[in-house]
Amino acid sequence: MDTHAELRASVRALCAPYGADYWREQDEKDGFPERFLEAFTAAGFTGALIPEAYGGSGLGLVEGAVILEEVHASGADGGVCHAAMNVMGALIHSGGEVLKARWLPQVANGAVKFLAFAVTEADAGTDTSRIRTTARRVDDHYVLNGTKLWISRALETDLMLVLVRTAPRQTDKRMNGLSVLLVDMREARGNGVEIGRVATMVNHNSTEILFDNLKVPTEHLIGGEGQGFRCIMQGMNAERILIGAECIGDARWFLDKAAAYARERRVFDRPIGQNQAVQLPLAQAHARTYAARLVVEQAARLFDEGKPCGVEANMAKLLASQASWEAGDACLKVFGGMGFARELGVERKFRESRLYAVAPLSNDLALTYIAERELGLPKSF
């Protein structure tokens, strides 16, 4: 029995007016889904994970995963929904009371958009310890300098978290000296922040950000100076679980589309779905999706219970991204040439599903994490 049937139905109702034409238009013009985000926020989903004391719904990650799964199962690109729900996680879990009371109610009601977290840099890649963006304390503020790359929605957000170095990197304690700052982008743009678009295969509103002596008040420090990596670790597990849920939604969308087309499309006087060459890949993808969904659900439950879930979060993201890619590949094969027609949306979703094999964590790194923690193998990097 689905204990979240009502929640799923409400998400589907929200997504219904935003069909293939809407998302194709956003994709083709590299647009930002402003109307969809407004509807998502008005329905209360932006504040789903925000505690009730700050105007949110106080739901758990289990419910957050349900919401994002259904968004993706509707055919939407839920990147903006993921960001709107989860980017402020470090503020919720590690922020001071003053900052939370000031900002979270405004995020929950949509008065303020909180859609970006600037971590990645060109020369650091997945080795977060090597970021070079610095924050130097001067009296009652920090001065930021450096460059971030692949930061989604920096042009659309009002608030942004930035991971910086407040102390030099130490060889034996690589993650020490990292800190998280909350930046009000409405004040920062043009006053120490320059942002440029980065054209990509997938419409994630990607940007490059240059910080040039940007001043950030010291009270905007999240979790204490030098505690940045600890602040983002919990968010990393949540992010991987939610990405897994989105991939499950994508896989469901691919399988629903492919099965419907296979039942209707007739070649040689029979539906193509009668052929085992069509049936077997779809059935295989369905089985993998079913199994991956169980892992995603288990990881989310562990997270909500406050139990260790690093391995489960990595397995959830790994298995779900593989399932969505397999389902997308099978779907494209069922549609044949028609699958490349933009009007059907298959090629768009196929491109989008490819992203999650490499971001926000590559599947190879997820595997090394599992190998070390579960199999006791020596650290590979």
Helix content: 40-55%
Strand content: 15-25%
CATH domain fold name of the largest domain: Butyryl-CoA Dehydrogenase, subunit A, domain 3
CATH superfamily of the largest domain: Butyryl-CoA Dehydrogenase, subunit A, domain 3
Question: Strands, helices and their partners?
Answer:
Elements: H1 5-15, H2 20-28, H3 34-42, H4 61-73, H5 79-86, H6 89-94, H7 97-108, E1 114-118, E2 134-138, E3 141-152, E4 159-165, E5 178-184, H8 185-188, E6 193-197, E7 206-217, E8 221-222, H9 228-264, E9 266-267, E10 270-271, H10 276-304, H11 310-335, H12 346-355, H13 363-375
Parallel strand pairs: 1-4
Antiparallel strand pairs: 2-3, 3-7, 4-5, 5-8, 6-7, 9-10
Question: What does it look like?
Answer:
With 381 residues, the chain is of the alpha+beta class. It folds into 3 domains: 5-108, Butyryl-Coa Dehydrogenase, subunit A, domain 1; 114-226, Butyryl-CoA Dehydrogenase, subunit A, domain 2, CATH 2.40.110.10; 230-375, Butyryl-CoA Dehydrogenase, subunit A, domain 3 (Up-down Bundle). Helices cover 49% and strands 15% of the residues. It has 13 helices and 10 strands. The strands form 3 sheets. The protein has a 4-stranded mixed sheet with strand order 1-4-5-8. A hairpin with an 8-residue loop joins β6 and β7 (206-217). α1 (5-15) packs across α4 (61-73), α4 runs parallel beside α9 (228-264) and α11 (310-335) runs antiparallel to α12. The model has no long low-confidence stretch (mean pLDDT 96).
Briefly, what is this?
By secondary structure, the chain is α+β, with helices and mostly antiparallel strands. Helix content is 49%, strand content 15%. The chain is built from 13 helices and ten strands.
